[in-house]
Amino acid sequence: MYYKFIFSSALILGTLISISSYSWFSMWMGLEVNLLSIIPMMASTKNMLSSEATLKYFVTQTMASTILLFTVIMMSIQLMYNLNMNSYLTLILNTTLFTKMGAAPFHFWFPEVMEGLSWINSLIMLTWQKVAPMILSMYFTLNLMYTSIIIIASMMISGIMGLNQTSLRKIMSYSSINHIGWMLSSILITETIWLYYFTIYLLISINITMILKTLNIFYLNQLFMSMNKSPLIKLMFTLNFMSLGGLPPFIGFLPKWLLIQSLVSKTLISISITMTLMTLMTLYFYMRLTFSTILLEMNEILFYSHPMPNNTFVWILNLTTIIGLAFSTLIFNFM
Amino acid sequence: MMKFFFALVFMIPLSFLKKSFWLNQYVYFILVFLLFYNLSFNYLFLNVSYCFGVDLLTFVMILLSFWICSLMILASAGIYFKNYYYNLFLLIVLILLISLFLTFISMNLLVFYLFFEISLIPTLILIMGWGYQPERLQAGVYLLFYTLFASLPMMVSIFFFYKKFFTLDFFFFFIEVNSFLFYMCMNMVFLIKMPMYFVHLWLPKAHVEAPISGSMILAGVMLKLGGYGLMRLMSLFLTVGMKVNYIFIAISMMGGFLVSLICLRQSDMKALIAYSSVAHMGLVLSGIMTMNCWGMCGALVLMLAHGLCSSGLFCLANISYERLMSRSLYLNKGLLNVMPSMSLWWFLFTCCNMAAPPSLNLLGEIMLINSLMGWSSLCIIFMSLISFFSASYSLYLYSYTQHGKIYSGFYFFFTGFIREYLLLFLHWFPLNVLILSSEFFTMWI
C-alpha cells in the first residue's frame, strides 16, 4: 500500500508543476507526470473493471497530451513569424484541454472510467484531475464562440445523459460535466470565481463521496436502504445533492450566484439564462437521489442494519454545505 | 424585526425537544401576539435593521404567515398522535416560517428572491414527506420545476437590473423599465406562483397530494408570495405594464371563469378548493395588473381573505378526511347527520368562499370589481360569471358534503374535537372581524 503515498504525492506534484510552469513544454510534462502517477493508483487487483477504466483513461489522456504537445510544437514554429494567438491551433489546444477535463462533447471516456473506480479514485477524478487542465486553459484567451458551444454542449449532454442513470458514480460524473460547463464560463470571465466555484464543488464532492464510501453505496437503489435509522442525518446527506444542483439555501448556490452576476455584468445574458435552465435537467436527477429521503417512510426494514457514518463527521461536513450560504460572507474576511 | 428573527432561530432547538408539539404551537401564538405590538399604520418601512424592514403590506403578510404556521401545527395533530416524525415536522415548519418571514421583510429584491427560493425547499419536503399517495413525488417535482423554471431567468434579470440601475432596493423602485422581455423574466415566476391560469397545473396536483399542513401553507401563504412580489415590482413596469397587462388580465379573468366551471365537476374536495383558489387568485392577479389603487388594495384584501378562507376550507376537508379516509364527494355525504356542529363551520366557510357579507372576501371582491370596472367595463361579463360560479361551486361543495343520505359504508364516527373547532374558529374569526378595521389594508400604498 505504501506505493500509493508516493504516487499520490507525485500526482499532486504533477499538477503543481503543470500549473506553475511558464513554458508549454513543462506544462505538458506536468500533465504527463500527473497521468502516469494516477494510473497505478487506479489499478486494483480486487476489481476487474478498474483495469478497463485505467486503460481507457490512459489512452484518452495520452492522446490528448500528444495532441497538446504536437500543437505546442506547431505553435512554436508559427510564433516565430507572428504572434497570433487566435489561430486554429489555439482551438486544437483548447480541445486537448477540454478532453483532459472531460467537457462534452469530448466526455465519452469520463463516465466509463468513473464506473470502474473506487470512491476515493472517483473523488480524485472529479476534482483534482480537473485542476491542471482548467488552470492551463486560463493561460490563453479562450475563443468565446468555441467555449460557449462547449459550455452549452456540456450542459445539455450532462442533463440528458444523466437522466436514466442508476449508478451513482455515473451520476456524479455527469454532474461533474455539468459543473465543468459552469467552471468554463467562469474561466471565460473571472478566475477568482473559478476558485470559489471549484472550492465549493470540491467541498460538496468530498462530502458526498466520503459518505457513500463509508456506506459502500454505488447504485441508486442502495440509497433507499441506507441510513434509515436516522431520517435527519439522511435528509442532511441528501440535501447535499440539492446543494450540488445549486438551490438557494445551500452553499452550492453561492458560486452560481457570483458567476451569474459577473456573467450578466459582462452582458453574457443569453448564455447565463441557457446555463441556468439547462442545469434544471441535472437538478431533476439530483432530485431523484433525494426522493428516497424526502419520502420519509418508503420502506423500513428494522432487522437489517446498515452501518451509519460517523456522526460528528457527517454533521460538520453536512452543516458546512447546507447552511454555508448564510456564513459565506465570512470567506471575504480571509481573502 | 431582528427580535422576531432571533426568536425564530432560537426555536430550532425547541423543535427537537420530545413531546414539545404543543409547546411549539403556543410559542407561535405568543409570537403573533408580540407581533401585534409592532402594528403601525405606516406605509413607510419601519423597524429597519440590516436589509430588513416592515411596512404595512409586509406587516399584513408576516402576520398571515405566523398565523397560518401556528394553525398548521394545530391542524396536524395527527402527526403528533401517530408519532410520525413530528420533531422533523416542527423543524420544517419552523424553517418554512423563517424563510417566509425573511422573504416578506426584506427590502431588497435579491434578498427577497433568495428567501423566496428557500421557502420552496421546506414546502417540498412537507409535501413529499407527510403526503399520502405515491403520486406526491410527481406533485413535488411539478412544484419545484414549475417554480424554478421561471425563477432562474428572474435571477438573471435581477442582476441585469442591478447592472443597469445600481440598486435593488424596493424603496428606489420608481425607475421605469420599458422592456417586455424584462417584464416577462421578472414576473413569470410570480405568475406561476400565484398561479395564473395556464401555469396553474402544479397547484391542484400539489394540493391533492399535500398533507393538511402543506395545503394550508400553500393556499395560505405561498400563493400570496406571488401577489406580494407583483405588488412590489409593478412600480417598475408602469410603461410596459400599460401595454401588456391586458393580456394577463384577460387570461386570468377568462381562466377564472373556466376554472370555476372545472370546480363544478370535481369529485375530490381538495381539488375543488384548489381550483377555487386558482379562480380567486386570478381575481387578485387582474386587480394587481390594473395598477390602480382600488386594484392594489383589493388584491391585498382578497389575498388575506383567501389565505384564511381556503386554508380553513382545507382544514374542513381534512377533518372529513380523517374520519372517512376519503376526500371523494361521493363518500363525504350527509355529514350534517353525524356532525351537525361541524356543518355550521362548513356553512360559514363556504359562505366566506362565495364572498358573503361579513367576510373580507366580500370587501376584496367589491374593491376588485371597482378596479376592474374602472379599467374596462367589459370586465363585468367575466367578473359576474366568476362571482356567480364561485357562489355555485361553494354551494355545491357545501350541499354535497352536508346534505343527502349518509354513506352506508362506515359504521362508527367520532365527532369534532375542541381542537378542531378552535382551529376553525381561529380561521374564521379574523376573516369576518377584520372587516371592521378594513382601512388597515388600504393605507399601505
TrEMBL record, chain A:
Q: Which GO terms describe its biological process?
A: mitochondrial electron transport, NADH to ubiquinone
Q: Which domain of life is it from?
A: Eukaryota
Q: Which reaction does this chain catalyze? A: a ubiquinone + NADH + 5 H(+)(in) = a ubiquinol + NAD(+) + 4 H(+)(out)
Where it sits in the cell: the answer is: Mitochondrion inner membrane
Which GO terms of the molecular function aspect are on file?
NADH dehydrogenase (ubiquinone) activity
What Pfam families does UniProt report for this protein, alphabetically? Proton_antipo_M (PF00361)
- Membrane topology, from the record: Multi-pass membrane protein
NADH:quinone oxidoreductase/Mrp antiporter transmembrane domain location, by residue? Answer: 21-282
Q: Which InterPro entries match?
A: Complex_I_Subunit_2, NADH_UbQ_OxRdtase_chain2, ND/Mrp_TM
Which parts pass through the membrane? 5-25, 58-81, 88-110, 144-163, 193-212, 232-255, 267-287, 313-334
Assigned GO CC terms: mitochondrial inner membrane
Tell me, in a sentence or two, what this protein's role is: Core subunit of the mitochondrial membrane respiratory chain NADH dehydrogenase (Complex I) that is believed to belong to the minimal assembly required for catalysis. Complex I functions in the transfer of electrons from NADH to the respiratory chain. The immediate electron acceptor for the enzyme is believed to be ubiquinone. Core subunit of the mitochondrial membrane respiratory chain NADH dehydrogenase (Complex I) which catalyzes electron transfer from NADH through the respiratory chain, using ubiquinone as an electron acceptor. Essential for the catalytic activity and assembly of complex I.
Give the protein name, as stated in the record.
NADH-ubiquinone oxidoreductase chain 2
Q: Which organism is it from?
A: Holotrichia oblita
Query: What's the source species' lineage?
Result: Eukaryota, Metazoa, Ecdysozoa, Arthropoda, Hexapoda
Q: Encoded by which gene?
A: nad2
From TrEMBL, chain B:
- Enzyme group, top EC level? translocase
In what residue span(s) does the NADH:ubiquinone oxidoreductase chain 4 N-terminal domain sit? 1-103
Q: Please provide, alphabetically and separated by semicolons, the GO molecular function terms listed in this UniProt record.
A: NADH dehydrogenase (ubiquinone) activity; NADH dehydrogenase activity; ubiquinone binding
Pfam families on file: Oxidored_q5_N (PF01059), Proton_antipo_M (PF00361)
Known catalytic reactions: a ubiquinone + NADH + 5 H(+)(in) = a ubiquinol + NAD(+) + 4 H(+)(out)
EC number(s) per entry: 7.1.1.2
Bilayer disposition of the protein: Multi-pass membrane protein
* Keywords, sorted A to Z: Electron transport, Membrane, Mitochondrion, NAD, Respiratory chain, Translocase, Transmembrane, Transmembrane helix, Transport, Ubiquinone
Q: What does this protein do?
A: Core subunit of the mitochondrial membrane respiratory chain NADH dehydrogenase (Complex I) that is believed to belong to the minimal assembly required for catalysis. Complex I functions in the transfer of electrons from NADH to the respiratory chain. The immediate electron acceptor for the enzyme is believed to be ubiquinone.
Member of which family?
Answer: Belongs to the complex I subunit 4 family.
* Protein name (Swiss-Prot/TrEMBL): NADH-ubiquinone oxidoreductase chain 4
Recorded source organism is Holotrichia oblita (Chafer beetle)
